[in-house]
Design a protein that fits this description.
Blueprint (H helix, E strand, L loop, with lengths): L2 H8 L7 H5 L2 H10 L2 E3 L5 E3 L2 H9 L4 E2 L3 H8 L3 H8 L8 H10 L4 H23 L5 E4 L1 H5 L1 H10 L10 H10 L7 H27 L8 H7 L8 H14 L2 H16 L1 H9 L4 H11 L5 E6 L3 E3 L2 E3 L4 E5 H4 L34 H18 L4 E2 L4 E2 L8 E3 L1 E4 L7
Parallel strand pairs: 2-8
Antiparallel strand pairs: 1-2, 3-5, 4-12, 5-8, 6-7, 9-12, 10-11
Bound molecules: protoporphyrin IX containing FE.
Length: 413
């Protein structure tokens, strides 16, 4: 049997081979070519073609985001279940619309532009700290750089005091880690503990903010507390959506920065091109998002009998959207397995599409541009000190460790 047929036939999100975590793209290509609407052992389907993924995103009436049915057996009656089923991303209108409007109002292009100066300061501070280690220093670009940026930006968005930000990243990793297709008992326990601790922390923060409200123009927490049109969120909706917002902006953006820096090392000609033409940074960020999508999978459930890619689906069929696969579809992207920092057009679906399209995408793009652009300008000769270590996750693709040697450019005299 041809290798692609074997890969497609044996694919099951709940039983992924080690090689898949290193490089999922050969499997995604095999699926697109051999089984674009792949039925899995649990009755769900996996979509790998761009056209099918986009069609699902566009039809939120037939393809619901509500996760009560999917998450009940996965989490049981638990903090993780309550959290994920209360987040806007895993709900349909009207809850989704109410929460989204409140968040989106503080993330307009004008608000995002106003965040740039503080972001540049933060990034330069991190770069200074790396440079201070001296030429030839080995630095983990994830711990020392990529993960340190989003935590600050999202912390600023909710105006979380600086000295209280330390636990945010671990809570976030534990809660999002529990979204993997399969879950160990230890992961489940870690996720539930993180939700409990996060809720306790946020309840205190909300109390303080109610006593001393921030500027609702820029402070998302004050906006969520105030609600809109006399319609405030319930206490649980408020806390869980704050947790979601903090999580949504963390690992995804860390991975955009880490994946971008790693991809440039694997494609030295593209790195040289970007160094020679820094104005390509905008399109380069889009290409990193397409080429190594930080969020590789999406999920929906059918509300009625329907059809996708010529395959009939019964009501209540769970559908996994292969975002990363769609972004490598040769029907839409020329030479899709090649990194091209100047790619245009580049209509990737790394931020999803339709009514749930990422509300933070403007912010994520800005973070990617500033972080990668300023890093490259400062350390153009950076290189790996050890093989990159991938985090073994199917949904959120990134690195656990990216140990690099960073040599600052000699100062001009
Ligand atoms: C590279 C970084 C990011 C990626 C790849 C990403 C990806 C995504 C995707 C694919 C969705 C759609 C989910 C679905 O349709 O089921 C989404 C939704 C969302 N994202 Fe992002 N995201 C990123 C950064 C951020 C940031 C920085 C924030 C916050 C400031 C954020 C906040 C949200 C929110 C609130 C939603 C839910 C929107 C809704 O349900 O209407 N994201 N994101």
């Amino acid at each position: 049997m041809p290798a692609d047929r074997v890969l497609a036939d044996s694919f099951d999100l709940r039983r992924l081979a080690d090689a898949f975590y290193d490089d999922p793209y050969p499997t995604y290509r095999a699926l697109r070519e051999q089984a674009p609407v792949k039925r899995m052992a649990d009755g769900s389907v996996f979509l790998s073609r761009y056209a099918d993924v986009v069609a699902v995103y566009k039809d939120s009436g037939v393809f619901s985001s509500d996760k009560h049915e999917e998450f009940a057996p996965k989490y049981g009656d638990s903090p993780l279940f309550e959290h994920h089923t209360t987040s806007l991303v895993f709900n349909d209108p009207p809850l989704h619309t109410r929460v989204r409007r409140l968040i989106a109002g503080a993330l307009t292009p004008r608000h995002i532009a106003a965040m740039e100066a503080r972001l540049v300061d933060r990034v330069d501070h991190l770069l200074d700290a790396m440079a201070a280690r001296g030429g030839g220093a080995e630095v983990d670009l994830i711990a020392a750089f990529a993960s340190a940026i989003p935590v600050e930006i999202i912390g600023n968005l909710l105006d979380i005091p600086n000295e209280e930000r330390a636990p945010l990243r671990d809570w976030s990793l534990a809660i999002l880690g529990a979204l993997e297709p399969t879950l160990s008992e230890a992961q489940r326990e870690r996720g539930n503990r993180a939700v409990r601790e996060f809720l306790l922390y946020l309840a205190g923060l909300v109390e303080r903010r109610r006593a001393a409200p921030g500027d609702p123009e820029v402070d998302v927490l004050s906006r969520l507390i105030a609600g809109e049109g006399g319609e405030a969120l319930s206490a649980a909706e408020l806390l869980h959506n704050c947790i979601f917002l903090l999580n949504a902006g963390h690992e995804t953006t860390t991975n955009l920065i880490g994946n971008g820096l790693a991809a440039l090392l694997a494609w030295p000609d593209e790195k040289a091109r970007l160094l020679a033409e820094p104005t390509l940074m905008r399109s380069a960020v889009e290409e990193f998002l397409r080429f190594e999508s930080s969020n590789q999978l999406g999920n929906r459930i059918t509300t009625c009998a329907t059809e996708i890619g010529g395959v009939a689906l019964a009501p209540r069929t769970q559908v996994t959207l292969g975002i990363a696969s769609a972004n490598r579809d040769a029907e839409t992207f020329a030479d899709p397995d090649r990194l091209d920092v100047g790619r245009a057009p580049n209509r990737h679906v790394a931020f999803g599409s339709g009514i749930h399209q990422c509300v933070g995408m403007g912010l994520a793009r800005l973070e990617g541009r500033v972080a990668i652009g300023r890093f490259l300008a400062r350390f153009p000769r950076y290189r790996l000190a050890a093989p990159a270590v991938r985090a073994r996750r199917a949904r959120f693709r990134g690195h656990a460790r990216l140990l690099a040697i960073v040599d600052p450019l000699p100062a001009l005299s």
